[in-house]
Design a protein that fits this description.
Elements lengths: L13 H14 L4 H11 L3 H16 L13 E2 L5 E3 L16 H4 L10 H5 L2 H7 L10 H4 L1 H4 L18 H4 L1 H12 L29 E10 L12 H15 L9 E4 L5 H9 L9 H5 L11 E4 L10 E5 L5 E8 L3 H21 L6 E2 L3 E2 L11 E8 L9 H7 L2 E5 L11 E6 L7 H23 L6 H7 L1
Antiparallel strand pairs: 1-2, 3-7, 3-10, 4-5, 5-6, 6-7, 8-9, 10-12, 11-12
Helix pairs in contact: 1-2, 11-14, 15-17
GO cellular component, one term: extracellular space
Keywords: ATP-binding, Kinase, Nucleotide-binding, Transferase
Family: Belongs to the ATP:guanido phosphotransferase family.
Length: 472
């Protein structure tokens, strides 16, 4: 029935009372200002709400292809000036009025230590605030994952591109971030080299697996013409999944396997695959604020090159997590050449099939492979090894030494693992400005050197990491 206005029997629903009052008002000859004032007091009738919603929706849907506007509510005062704000689609809305850049500038606490916080000056924000890409992505969408500071501190970057156009439209913001993070100037060109035969060394780093427990290489890829996950609609996300399924279905030989949509996956299976690092995690606070978790788990899935979940795949494709695709090869031991070779075969096979369907991976002469997070521009590659360095890791300066060699160090369970178990996830620190072959060679040389130092410590030798630091 709806809510009732007034007391006692015979009171009519509030909607009927408003309509009755509005009917009386329409019969009156009154100034516009009076009509607007009464409208604010008694609320909009259904006709007014539908009309305003239609106007806003029409404006919104024209901003981006394939974006459907939500129903908007608005209260209009004298002369059409908005008294409260109306919204269409989140991405493509044209506001009835805009706050000034000074009023809209984000709040930053002492915990906001991201590169976004450093480079989003009031001047830059004022310049970029009115702009939006053809997919409707704004600077506020770009920085969403870095402005929220809840249970977890924002990640080091604090921003996410919504599409290819974001990097050019918001260049006054992105360019200095890319320059600082990658040490890569706006005029530089990135080199791509996915030929394993160009490696100088192809030996297994640790044939007996005494130190290198496992090796994993993954690359991030976007599909040209489609918005990145942070700006994706349901339809665009499903298009990515459709392309991924059709491409993986054509894989043959040791790459052949099965695609598993998260929609069809039991919770127990999903948890098991996450624990085994075969599947990505479900959304957390960061991915939700970055808008990567919308409509979860629709159009997300995992491809593995085996037919039985009890087996351990060594070729895996993640669909619609942080990127359109994350393609990876992983196996026990330290044979990084074999891992790289298989990964390249899989990536090339998928791209060939994608081109046959009129699509291709998004690549740029300046930024290399272009994806949503600026940290992954260039190669989009993270080559990592789980390495046991129990004695070496206890010495002061261990992390600094690794960083000096171009290596990043995490706990064995990944980015959020801060425990010192003696087993570390060591990976290439750089992505942009170095080719894939160069970064893998750096991994081979760097991890080999760390193993040599660990062996010396095990033999009872003393090592001064400050001196070693000056050698590299």
């Amino acid at each position: 029935m709806g809510f009732m206005v007034g007391k006692g029997k015979g009171t009519m629903p509030w909607v009927d009372q408003i309509n009755l009052r509005m009917h009386s008002i329409r019969r009156m000859v009154a100034p516009v200002g009076v009509v607007a004032s009464v409208a604010v007091l008694v609320g909009l009738d259904s006709y007014s709400r539908r009309a305003e919603g239609s106007k806003i929706s029409a404006k919104s849907s024209s901003q981006g292809e394939g974006i459907q506007a939500l129903t908007a509510l608005s209260v209009v005062g004298v002369g059409g000036v908005a008294l409260c704000e109306g919204w269409g689609s989140r991405k493509s809305t044209k506001r009835i009025f805009k706050y000034s850049a000074d009023d809209d500038y984000p709040y930053f606490s002492k915990w906001h230590r991201t590169l976004m916080r450093k480079h989003l000056t009031p001047k830059v924000y004022k310049q970029l605030q009115p702009l939006r890409t053809s997919n409707g992505f704004t600077i506020n969408d770009v920085i969403a994952c870095g402005t929220t500071c809840g249970y977890s501190v924002p990640r080091g970057m604090g921003c996410m591109a919504g599409d290819y156009e974001s990097y050019s439209l918001f260049a006054p913001f992105f360019s200095p971030i890319i320059k600082e993070y990658h040490d890569f100037s706006p005029t530089s060109r990135h080199t791509t080299d996915l030929n394993p035969s160009h490696l100088k060394s192809v030996k297994d780093l640790d044939p007996n697996s005494e130190y290198v427990l496992s090796t994993r290489i993954r690359v991030a890829r976007s599909i040209r013409g489609l918005p990145f996950p942070a700006a994706s609609s349901r339809a665009a996300r499903r298009k990515v999944e459709s392309l991924a399924r059709s491409c993986t279905e054509t894989l043959k030989g040791d790459l052949q396997g099965m695609y598993m949509p998260l929609n069809d996956m039991d919770n127990d299976v999903n948890d098991d695959l996450i624990q085994r690092h075969i599947c990505f995690d479900n959304p957390d606070e960061w991915s939700i604020t970055a808008r990567l978790g919308q409509d979860w788990p629709d159009a997300r899935g995992v491809y593995i090159n085996c037919q039985d979940l009890d087996e351990t795949p060594d070729f895996v494709v993640w669909v619609n997590e942080e990127d359109h695709l994350r393609i990876m090869c992983l196996r026990k031991g330290g044979d990084i050449f074999a891992v790289f070779e298989k990964l390249v075969r899989g990536v090339n096979a998928m791209e060939k099939q994608m081109k046959e369907q009129g699509y291709q991976f998004l690549h740029d002469e300046h930024l290399g492979y272009v994806v949503g997070c600026p940290t992954n521009l260039g190669t989009g590659m993270r080559a990592s090894m789980h390495v046991k360095l129990i004695k070496l890791a206890k010495l002061p300066g261990f992390i600094d030494l690794c960083n000096r060699m171009g290596l990043d160090v995490r706990g064995k369970h990944g980015e959020k693992d801060t425990r010192q178990s003696g087993i570390f996830d060591i990976s290439n620190r750089h992505r942009l400005g170095f080719s894939e072959v160069e970064l893998i060679q750096l991994m081979i040389d760097g991890v080999s050197y760390l193993i040599e130092l660990e062996k010396k410590l095990e033999a009872g030798e003393e090592i001064d990491l400050e001196k070693e630091f000056n050698k590299v």
